[in-house]
Amino acid sequence: MAEYNEDAYRLARKAYIEHSCPFERALLSRCVSCSRSHKLNLAEREAIACSDPEVRELCLVFYQALHENAQFALKTSPDAPWPFGKEIRAQCGGVRGLAMAMEDVGNETTDIAATVLQGHVHFGGCSEFPYSEIMRAVVHYEPRKRRG
């Protein structure tokens, strides 16, 4: 079996996807949804792109704030790459937690873009989001168990 050339894949991905989604892992794991995303197939892999660059910027700010706030809650080092399980907990739990902080249902139907936009209106910006409430959802989020 031929080896995958990760460098070639990254170059192709960068050339093909103009606006990557910061919540790609959450979308691929189907713990949340997004009306502004679209799925692509690249080199036998799935990737998620964002169709709205303006909303993507708001999502990126929220994503970065989630990582900053979740370091203590998930016991991660700011210098080390995040393990997949902790990344999923931050992304899925974070989006669902933000929805729940606005008295909405946080589940697999939660729309990331709509939730982030609604949060900006509701709280007055990403820096005003109730991260202590959101972190409770991050800590309590349990990723799906592997089949088999």
Written account of the structure:
The chain starts with 5 loop residues before the first helix and ends in an 8-residue tail after the last helix. It has helices spanning 6-16, 24-28, 53-73, 84-101, 112-123, 131-140, and strands spanning 37-42, 45-50. The longest helix has 21 residues, at 53-73. It is mainly alpha-helical. The mean pLDDT is 89. A hairpin with a 2-residue loop joins strand 1 and strand 2 (45-50). The protein has a two-stranded antiparallel ribbon with strand order 1-2. Helices cover 52% and strands 8% of the residues. The chain has one domain. It is globular and about 45 Å long.
Pick out its properties:
single chain, 148 residues, mainly alpha, two-stranded antiparallel ribbon, 6 helices, 2 strands, globular
Structural Rg: 16 Å
Q: Which band does the percent of strand residues land in? A: 5-15%
* Major sheet summary line: 2 strands, antiparallel
Class based on secondary structure composition and strand pairing: mainly alpha
Read across the widest sheet, the strand sequence of neighbours is: 1-2
Number of domains: 1
Distance between the termini: 24 Å
Helix content: 40-55%
Q: Can you tell me the overall shape?
A: globular
Low-confidence stretches: none
Give me the count of strands: 2
* Topology order in helix (H) and strand (E) letters: HHEEHHHH
Oligomer: single chain
Count of DSSP H/I helices: 6
Mean pLDDT score: 89
